[in-house]
Amino acid sequence: MKNNIIESKIQVPRVSKNFIIRPRLLEQFQEELKLFVLHATVGYGKTVLMTQLNGVAGADVAWYHLNESDNDVITFMQYLSRSLEKIYGVLQFDLERYEGMEQNEKQLTEMTYDLLEQITKAQQKKIKDTFIVLDDFQVINNEKIDTVLEIFISSLETNLKVVVATKGSIPHFWSRFYIQGQGMLIGQKELGFNKEEIEMIVKQMVAEDKNPTEIAGRMYQSVGRWPAGVMFEILYLKQGGLQSSENIMGKAAVYDYIMRALYRKLPFDIQTFLSSTSALEFLNADVCNAVMKIDNSQSILNYLVQENLLIIKVGSGDRMFRYHSLMKEFLNEQLNDLTRKEIMKRAAEFYLHTDNKEQAVEYAINGENPELAEYAVGSIGIDMVNQGKLSTVERWINWIESCNINITPKTMLVYGVYNWKSGRINKGLDFINIAIEKFITSMNEVGYIQAMLEKARIMKVMGKDEESAGIIDELSPILRNKDRKKMVYNFCRESQIGFNINLDNNFKDNQENYQVVTLARQNPDSYREKPIYIKAFGEFQVFITGKTEEIKWRTKKAQELFAYLFHLNGEPVSKEELTLLLWPDNQGKSATSLLHTALYSIRRELSTFGLDNLICYNKKKYLLNMDMINSDVQDLTVYYETLKNGKELHLEEEALSDIYTGSYMERMELDEFLPQRVNLEKMFLKVCEMEGIEDFKCGRFERTIMWMNRAVATDPFEESLQLLRIKSYAALRDFKNTKKYYEKMKEMLLKEFDLQPSEDIGEIWRKYVGVKNGV
């Protein structure tokens, strides 16, 4: 299954040390029960309590923060298993086998037991308790997930427990475990602070000259047991308020406090950042920079996290955050509808250029942008269907259809594949036929090929083998045409291989190309589609994925700057280093101005493609976001590493020539490029040599000569390459060329180095050519 996990959803949140430990509640979790349900409205400390199971109680915690997109059984099981892997290591749970299932009770049971079996094996090495935390469960409305959880929880071992936190109704399956004496409900009353806890937190957070007992008593009278209300009153007290028995009763009054005591005191740009980013589910610097059109989000997030009730870190690093529920609700109320929709639109556009295209769809839907949602569904819909996430795709399709917009052929194809995989084959075929006609009209070759291949699949499933094979025959001239852009050719080649193997069982004839496809699937980080493709061999060129034209540079210095950032491969570089390298004669403010001008011109060009965040600025240093880039350097490196590790992978020489079209940064004059230029040339020559040797061993001497011709053209002085070429001609008994290249090499060595050919080459000459000529 394609790995599009959002890691922040399965990271245990990090909360402030100022939150008190609650032993009376933690003791409840020591009961020998299978299910605990925390049921309370916002602000009752459910999340904080669950994090303390790990840090205070010492148990292992597998965390899963749920949202609307988790109303899909496959998605749910994918995240659940990945969360458990953080505790148990890799589980041999093959979710892919269930991707196309009907999701009836029998198959749901089988899938659940498969996961349980792997957990049981892994649990044998565990002694302490493990808690599976399902946070914000109120968003789940899929009965199939309830079924899975009921089966899952009922079969758990005693030291594995499930904790469900919900602001909404209590899960249906809880009653079964309660009746059996295996479930506990911890409600709003239990989660609320008692007087002793209020006094404890007052002592912890308020100056010693205050009377904690008196203050705690006043707070208990004012806000009762509501933890959020208590915390806000304490903050207000620390800022000089609460001189008398002020009442902060209920959510509306707390919002009023936030506005008066916190929000209005912040700088306007911070207020704008808070309200705008509250529309996001999870925050990181990249997405915040994209939606806010700034470049300092990381420093703002680091500042905000110091405010205990504003934002919390997710996981162990400083990369991912989310707002506390109460703060998020308040901030959302400060956001007008037009601004909220614009933020959602920018977030969707940001995620369209990442691996998490699911998020692009969700943000487009939440931002009520049907055209953008439809485009995003067209980009990821078929992958989602093939992963078995039918419920999610159904929800997307239903929403788009309710908007009454024109459907593009790509999304029409998604409709077709979704209906086919949902058991409505004829309806699916109708949609696919419509998509084919639209692709023809719009002259979209890749879309047309993909739609025709999906139609061939359906014909095969329906038992119409001849019609299926007929479609492939019809496509063959197109699929085999190499006179097209590399991206289109690679897509066509992979599609053709898969179908030839599936339809004709013709594995041997396609083995070599099939290995290319296998490599791509084994190295998804190297081969997945990214928004940028860079050609660094020969002329330096930058392409937007899916666009035919390359990025145009306003100045040569702008191109050199971008090339150098790419050369650093994601390593940060300071402004001073860049100005010294690129403008050595213009230091000080003049050089800085030239740098900013070049950066501005690059960013302006990138912004037209929604790639404002490609160049990052963090801790006063610039770097390129390499997660957004594929390159010919990467292609060559993966190819080389694969061969070096002994895996079989044979490309045509033309394919390697498409990658290595010249020296690294051939037309760039910076000396910093020279070491890498030498290293990559050696890598290319080694690839040619390894391929040539393998072909020679297998008796494919013509192919060996092809490889050696390419290599010798790059480095004519490498004797081992010359030797292999001469041996290949000799093995073919082509004595004319054997003699020709021997004499040519002999002349070159004598002229350049005053040397004779090595004994190895001399032996080849005597064995094959000398004998023939009576030498």
From TrEMBL:
GO terms for molecular function: DNA binding. Residues 654-762 form the Bacterial transcriptional activator domain. GO terms for biological process: regulation of DNA-templated transcription. Residues 262-337 form the MalT-like winged helix domain. InterPro entries: AfsR-DnrI-RedD_regulator (IPR051677), BTAD (IPR005158), P-loop_NTPase (IPR027417), Sig_transdc_resp-reg_C-effctor (IPR016032), TPR-like_helical_dom_sf (IPR011990), WH-like_DNA-bd_sf (IPR036388), WHD_MalT (IPR059106). This is Uncharacterized protein. It comes from Aminipila terrae.
